[in-house]
C-alpha cells in the first residue's frame, strides 16, 4: 500500500471537516497537507470508495424460496 505522508493520515492528528484542517497533538491546528517531523502513518485513517449496495427491489419472494 502506498503511504501518504501528510497530517491527515497521522496517528497524532484528528481531522476537522468543518475547516478541512487537522488538530495535531504536537503542532495544534494545521492544514491537512502539513507534514511535521513527528509523523506516524495510520492506515486506518485512509478512506476507500465503497461499492454501491445491490438493489434487491427487483427480486420477488419466489427468488428467495428453496423449493423447486
Poorly predicted residue ranges: none
Query: Could you give a short account of the major beta sheet?
Result: 3 strands, antiparallel
In spatial order, strands of the major sheet run 1-2-3
Fraction of residues in helix:
under 10%
The strand count comes to 3
**Mean pLDDT rating:** 84
* Rg, Cα atoms, Å: 21 Å
Please give the alpha-carbon distance between the first and last residues: 47 Å
Strand content: 15-25%
The ordered string of helix (H) and strand (E) elements is EEE
Classification by helices and strands: mainly beta
Counting DSSP H or I runs of 4 or more residues, the number of helices is 0
What characteristic shape results from the CA principal axes? Answer: elongated
Give structural notes:
By secondary structure, this protein is mostly beta strands. The chain has a domain at 1-43. The chain has no helices and three strands. It has strands at residues 13-16, 21-24, 28-31. The radius of gyration is 21 Å and the shape is elongated.
Key structural traits:
elongated; 3 strands; mainly beta; 18% strand
Task: Kindly summarize this structure in a few lines.
The chain has 68 residues and is mainly beta. The chain has strands at 13-16, 21-24, 28-31. Strand 2 and strand 3 (28-31) form a beta hairpin.
